[in-house]
Amino acid sequence: MLIGNHSMTTHLTARLTWHDTAWNGRLCANPDTNAACMEHEHVRALRRLDVEAPHAGCGLVDLKRVTGYLPPCQRDANAFGEDAYVICHQDPLDGRNLPSVEEDVPAFSVCPTPYRWMLESNFRDICEAENLLIPAPKNPSATWVQEDTRQRQLLERFWGKLEKNRSLVFFYCNRGNAVDDEANRLLVGVSRIAEVANPTYFGQSSAFPGRFPVWSRRVTHHYPREGVRIPYQEYLHRDLDVDGIVCRPPRDLSLPFSYVAEHLSDGQAVSALLAIMTTVERLEADRKAGRGVDGDWAGALAWLDGALDEVWSGRGAYPGIGAMLRALGCSQGIGYHATVLRQLERNGRDPWQHVKDLFEGRRQPEADYAHSLAEAILCWRKMPSRHKLIDLLVRFELTTDQIADILNEDTRKQRGILATNDAILENPYRLFEQDCGTKRSAPVSLEVIDQGMLPEGDAARFRTDPPLPPHDHRRVRATMVAVLQRAASAGDSLLPFPTLVQRAASFFPESRRCAADAETIWSSEDRTFHEQILWFRDAPAPESWKRADADAAADGADDELAELREDLGAAKPTEGERPILRLAALKSVRRWELEIAQVIKKQVGALADLPAEGPDWRALLTVPEEEGGFGEPQTGREHAAIDEKIMALEVLYRNRLSVLTGGAGTGKTSILRIFLRTLRALEGPRSTLLAAPTGKARVKLQTSTGRPAATIHQVLSDAGMLGPNYRILETPEKGKLSYNTVVIDESSMPSVELLAALFRAINTGAIARLIFVGDPCQLPPIGPGRPFIDMLRWLRQAHPGCVADLGTCMRTDGAGGMAVGLQLANGYRDESPPGDDMVISRVARSSTHGDLTLMTWNDHGSLLAKLDEAFAMLNITPGDAKSFDRSLGISEEEWKRSEAWQIISPTRIHPFGTGEINRVVQERYRGRELTNANNANRWPRAMGDQGIVFHDKVMQRVNEPKWLPEGTEGMRFVANGEIGIVTAAWKKKPGEEKGQDKLHVNFSTQPKASYRYLKSEVEESLELAYALTVHKAQGSDFGGVIFVLPRKAQTLSRELLYTALTRYRGRLIVLAEKDTEVLERLRNPALSETARRSTYMFDLLLGDVGTDVPLPPRYRPEGLVHRAEDGTPMRSKSEIIVYEALKGLGLQPLYEQRLCAPTDPDDFCLPDFTIVHGGRTWYWEHLGMLANKGYRDDWEAKEAWYTRHGFRDRLLTSRDHPGGSFGAVYADEIRETARTWILGH
């Protein structure tokens, strides 16, 4: 009797080249701005913008008829198009040049190529997995399968496994997408295959006899009748929130969504469909809320639900049997599962029981598989204690590597899985919760375990255990772990518990919703189980969250409205009682924060036994520059700088814990060099660790101090705390390292995980001086937390004597003032000087002011024209390779000059991103080298996805040791972020079977070392570096910087803008889109990436999720952004006091509104507050550090502007008084001034 339809179906993934009108069979609407498609080598090589741009939006049928041209994306441009056209297939192998062949592409069709199956290196694995008997290659070292017969057999198996009207096709984009800068894979849609075309063959050639197949096949699908496409393009065109509909494949599906065309099993299709369903549910919610696009999303959900039923059935009850058999030694395990065992399942028999009968001798193996099964049978019988674990694992669609590692306790631990066999049996979700993966194997995903624990339909057959409730406590915990992992990746070290529950409820599609009851999690016996790996805490709201009654002293202040609000249902705590907050975090992340806080608190204090009279810092600082000092100060600015450096050095010298902080150009590194040199002279050569978070920062630190430095990862490696795949281990297996002095540079960059690991790797009790050096206004860490910011905030409040602030910038504008570019950057710091807003106005009017130039662009063409103008300012003649080479030191072989200038952008994607800019610059200035690279007979081809050639400027992407000939000067190690020039490119010798093309790179930091890279190493190790993202430029500086600044980008924030503006040493050129709007907008403190995060290292600071906390009206969550009671964000607490005092008088102050000069709209400033009352407009400025000469000079210049343009009689000011870290503000004075001048009484 047949029960259901359990045939194993194979599905297809098909990669699409990004298309701005959604693969509708036409050219892109704006082909010249589609930078995403240029990620693909074939597009870069073959696209002709001279044809595409004049015919933008043209149907490909008409385009070919009129021009004879089709774009390089022709194979997938009709994925969702209704027309039909003919494409031409070219021979993919070099040197063969078989005659091309044409093929029809009807509506809703693509022609993907299964490249993995054509790679010779994968041949053996594919044959074993597919039970294929194909002759061995004649040339095993060849990259691609060469013989026509072997190609045909492999392709016949690949395409033959797909079934029309049954198999699904999943469309995706890789990094070449215009949606998500961080997404390596982006699901685009799914449909059902209607037809897989018959094979086509290239023409005959006497030089290569045989019948060579085209590797791709035309695949037609049933869209729109069956299937769905995610409307990314529509969201982008309408400026909707595209981030909310981003759909990525689960993390364990990287391989199936690679190599252009690949197979997908039923179980993997379940995961992909569930991901798409979740996104379609959001699309329907957006549509209903009026913030989405029209579409039959309900109908799409119904179709997806039906397709899900099918793949659940096809998945079977034991999708892991084949991989399990291979892990036990049966090389034909996958084939045996697909042929023999699935047939048994179709006939209603339990396939795993059949296998166990073989293992235990109750049945003889099938003759065709007897030899292969013998090894697995023997292995099974040697591991009786693991039989129950194997019984469990076959329920999950795991890979062979994953199963092999989990079965072995030693390799299991290397993956981070510490659970015993019994613990895994009791809770299989632990595999997801603990697995960190390896270099060759992805971590086990929640989706894989969840499908095995909660199967649907026929996939649930043969189960003897009771069904798992959707809200089972194990499933609930695993889902909360997944939510908190995502939050940690986004920077949050904890979440309010209501936020966690809400996100967990929406993690799966509605049909598999995990909507556990919050009280059950928090208050039942399940809490003990959850707290094995989660941290839950009832915490009283901090006292600082209670709203200050700023208007208490205001005349006639009326509390009636507040009373009404409370009477209408808001919670009213008892007098003196604080509301209780519920918080949640991953226990590991919470532990990292507490470990860091513990070290900091223990380290705080003065060093004992130091002489009352310390070193003569002034004498050390004022020695001539050639002796390592600054020389005698000549100007007021120089005197101020020396004075604050003396104070800073004394802080570093006297304290066991200190922080040296300041903006660009304030001399942090110079201070450190002098301090370390003096310390060595005073105390002898004690052990010192100079640590930096990145390889490039390490090189910079070592060079600037003249002392050995290490990356934090190198320290962890020395202590034995780095496991496989650079996973950070819990304990130092080689023992803790001891240092007397520890300096951590670029301290804003380490996450709580990395900093806590460093403290576990070293004996913190032996540290005499722990010194953090950094700029808190730069980008926050990649990963959870912001330890440097939180530590600095706590120290300023509790131990201000530990903080050494450098505020005097010694990069000047030639007239003794601060460099203009750095003045502009100061506008994106807290407590910025009063004139920073006027810098925007000055450069808007005159384009160039001091070392800063501002130019604007409107579209891609004008951006490239402005880039030419910027190059001309750097003495590069546009289009002239010789002047370009001189600028980088290529002509004179001065490799240090490769960092003489740098283009930076907020993003990799989009026409203004680094991908497109690198391509354009390379095309314009490396044209000869690119042409040579196409001459395969004489020159090596361009290497890597970006097509790197001779004389390209490149950046190292990973930290790695590199060989150098004996006697060569160099570090024999290249750090992530080092920049250099390709100084040689070599083609492999004729007849050299195992050789490879190679290139050599000389880096600016190691100019005398020429490091070799084989062609196979280039993709992982190098990338083009004419343009870098701001994140990659962090920790570096360059002679000149060209900053491409769009109005909108996924990554834009105050910190990103500040980091970008401080990367230059000599000249800063800002290319802003349209006008200065983005420069003004990002001054808003609420647009801070650092403040968006939620952390609890010393104080509870909630960012974006603060609004999720249920609080009575008199409490407001505190974060790094200062907010008034009505939620208005401001730069400082002083401004909040001014604002609240004015509001208390019934006034309505507006924050930082543009005030233009009467005769010139580009001549403007941004008053702190604008107040309209009684038909008159007043302007209010709050003044802070007037004792600081630079601050005072800036204010006097701004005051003169008010006078010059006739606003002086309406200008009111308040000022800080001495006290606290930055001074005290007296609200009574503010009210008195407002009453006198504005209210008139």
TrEMBL record:
The keyword ATP-binding applies. One of its GO terms (molecular function) is ATP binding. Signal peptide: none annotated. InterPro entries: Coronavir_polyprotein_1ab (IPR050534), P-loop_NTPase (IPR027417), UvrD-like_helicase_C (IPR027785). It comes from the Bacteria. Keywords: ATP-binding, Nucleotide-binding. The keyword Nucleotide-binding applies. Gene3D superfamilies: 2.30.30.940, P-loop containing nucleotide triphosphate hydrolases. Residues 1024-1070 form the UvrD-like helicase C-terminal domain. It holds the Pfam family UvrD_C_2. This is UvrD-like helicase C-terminal domain-containing protein. It comes from Azospirillum brasilense. The lineage of its organism: Bacteria, Pseudomonadati, Pseudomonadota, Alphaproteobacteria, Rhodospirillales.
